[in-house]
Amino acid sequence: MKKLLLFMAHPTNDMDEDLTVLGQLGLMHISPFQPAKDESIERILKRIEELEKGISILEEYEGIESSVALEVTNYSTEKRGEIALLEDVLNTHNANVELNKQISELSKAQQWYNSWGSISLNDIKSITDKGVYLKLYEVPAKDVKSIAEQHTVKVVGQSAGAVQVVLISEDKEVSLNYHQIELPVISQQEVEEALSDKNAALAKGKQRLCQLSEQKALLVEALDERNRRLEIRTVQYGGIAFHDKVRCWEGYVPEDKVSNITEAADENAWGYVVREPRPDEYDLVPTLLKNPGWTHKIKPVMGFMGLVPGYDEIDVSKIFLIFFTFFTGILVGDAGYGLIFLVLTLLAHWKTGFVKKIEFGLFYTLSVSVMIWGVLTGTYFGAETIANIPFLKQLQVQQLASFGGDNLRIQQFMFIIGAVHLTIGHLQKGLKYINTVIPIAQLGWVSIVWGLYFLVNDMVLGIDGPSYMQWLFIGGAVLVTFFSSPGQPLFKGMLSSLGNLPLNVINGFSDVISYIRLYAVGLSTVLMASSFNDMAIGEGITTVASGVGAVLVLVLGHALNMTLAAMAVLVHGVRLNMLEYAGHASVEFSGSDYNPFKLKNK
Length: 602
Description:
The protein has 20 helices and nine strands. The chain has helices at residues 16-25, 39-61, 81-116, 121-129, 144-150, 188-212, 216-238, 258-268, 299-305, 317-332, 335-351, 358-377, 384-387, 390-394, 407-432, 438-461, 469-483, 490-514, 516-537, 544-584; strands at 2-9, 29-31, 133-139, 153-159, 162-169, 180-181, 240-242, 246-253, 271-275. The chain is extended, with a radius of gyration of 38 Å. The two termini are 28 Å apart. Keywords: Ion transport, Membrane, Transmembrane, Transmembrane helix, Transport.
């Protein structure tokens, strides 16, 4: 990456043309000097919000045939037609919302009349004017008799388990100790007429939106244009203006693309300064990874975890993908599960029309890895009976077999994987500094890692280490002590390396041991599958009920086991790459993605 300072004239004027050229180049990762603030940005944001709402409204009516042909303007032929269309959509929608509220209130009044009958509000008012007051209540049936003994009441019906009564009194203050039912404010005839009118208006509004939905593309195009303007304004006001004559931006450009920027700058009379980022600026430099296509499959995992190597760190994508795929196979380790994952991925891919997406490539790869490890270990839904089928048994590696294998050798194999994984990390770090003495120190660490491997075998598995094991530690320690700090005076560097060595060796020991989790989790997956099989069919299936129960146990049990295995992949498969391996490769994932200012061509 090269650091770029870019200058453009007339910062107070509309910079759309110049910034559009820059955005269409799509090469400059801009680091804003300040938050972008301006009234124009607020206006654009408000318009974007309105356009998104208008599009969302039309999408609800898209594809619905209009039963009535209304006179609707063709807004694509009008000046600022997208704004007129948007206003029409929003006004019609708001009117429909208000009509729905009114219909809801009228429906409540209609339900009241359906419950209490065709009561004339004029008659009730006439009675009230003569000094007789009528009040409506709903009371429990058991209380009606006692109320009738104290007041003049008349039962007029029943509703929802309660008795409808009318209290008749010449005293306006008299009431019952129950919830009083209020009278509607309009008559039944007015309710029916209003409902008819409102429903007709609502239907017309919906028909209008159905026809307007045919012009949705106009709003989509307008939204794209407003988003483009927003990006331009955000970049414009994120830069610094000098004396209202020049505006400046700071950013980064890939080294092999600098000429594209400078040529455009010369053509458009922009000023620029290009230089190498200083070491103290490395934390700000975005990371642009250039890898073979096959490594892109790991991007969804690294993106999900937010893992981006720093600008000055090693690109671990290739090793991450290879070992993550391998770890997934071991952690799940069941060929039957792998086949199910493969079929589910294929179905999901088929539903999308086999669209080319990195995620599907990743899931296909992981599913095949699980199937291969399951075949090598003879694991098929945790069933030993299937594993013993002659054809399948010939495909097993007997020492790794889940049933009848050598558990000691399997654990040792996991430690070998760990030692190899960590060794690769140190070798990558050494290659990064190939023109210094640091690669010699990394060879020392490789020696220590393999010494730790033999030590772990001895302490955990009881396998005696070779006679030269101690020399791996001694030789490694000497190399690390002398060559780990090339930038410091010899004696000071040696003291620093020696001071850190014991703790680093202890951490390395725990890192090698950490790979036993592959064996433990893989074994637990097999044992759980086998347990569910025993629960379902261990004593045989003798009745229909036991058959149904067995199917439920098998389906639910294995579904749960597959879910837990998938979670284990995210926890353990990622962890061994992100912590153990990355730690030995000195990768802290402190970087940020290269995200250039990029606009589509108009």
